[in-house]
Fold:
Amino acid sequence: MNLTVNEIFYSIQGESVYAGLPCVFVRLTGCNLRCRYCDTRYAYDEGSAMAVGPIMDRVASFDCNLVEITGGEPLLQDRTPELAAALLAKGYEVLVETNGSLDIDRVDRRCSRIMDVKCPSSGEASKNDADNLERLTANDQVKFVIGDHEDFRFAVQTLDRLPAVLPHDRILFSRIAERLPPDRLAGWMLDANIRARMQIQLHKVIWPERDRGV
Ligand code: SF4
Structure:
C-alpha cells in the first residue's frame, strides 16, 4: 500500500523551534478537520500515490538532514508511521506536524511531534484529543494558532494542563496573520508574562505571494 503525497519540496522551516533552518517537507494528502483559517486546502484531496522507497529517494535528493512530515493531517494515513521510522533509521531528524485530533503516539517518540491545540476561532476546538497532552515528551512542541483574545485566553488556560516535561520554549504562540497583528499578540504575552515562544510564519514573510512549495 502507498501513501498519498500532495507535494515534496525543499524550503526554509517557517514555524516551530526549527524556524529558519532549511528543511525538506513531505506534505501528505487529506485532513479530518476544516479550520476556518486553513491555508493548505489544496492538500485536502490532491495527491499522488507513492511508496515509502520513492519518497525516501526524493527526500535524499535534497541532501538535507531535517525532514518534516506535514499535511493536511499526516496521522490519517496508515503508512505514515512506517515513513517516519524509515527516515529515523536513515539518520534524519524528523518533525511531524499534526492537528492534535489523533493519537500522536502513532509515530515514534524520537520524532518531534509539533502538535496543534486548536483554539475556538478555528471552529475545530472540540476535536482536540485531550489525552495527547499526556503523551507529549520533552522532544515535542505544542502550537496554539491565535486569532483573537478569546483564543489567547484559551491558550493560557491550556498551559496549566501541559506536562512539566515540556520546556516552555517548545510552546508556540502563533497568530492568524489576517486577523491578529503581531504587536498585539506580543503585547498580550508580555502583559500576562507568558512563558512561551511567539512565532511568525517565516515562510510567508520570505515568499508572501506563494501559497505552495514553501
Ligand atoms: S488541521 Fe491544518 S490542514 Fe487541516 S483544516 Fe486545519 S489548518 Fe487545514
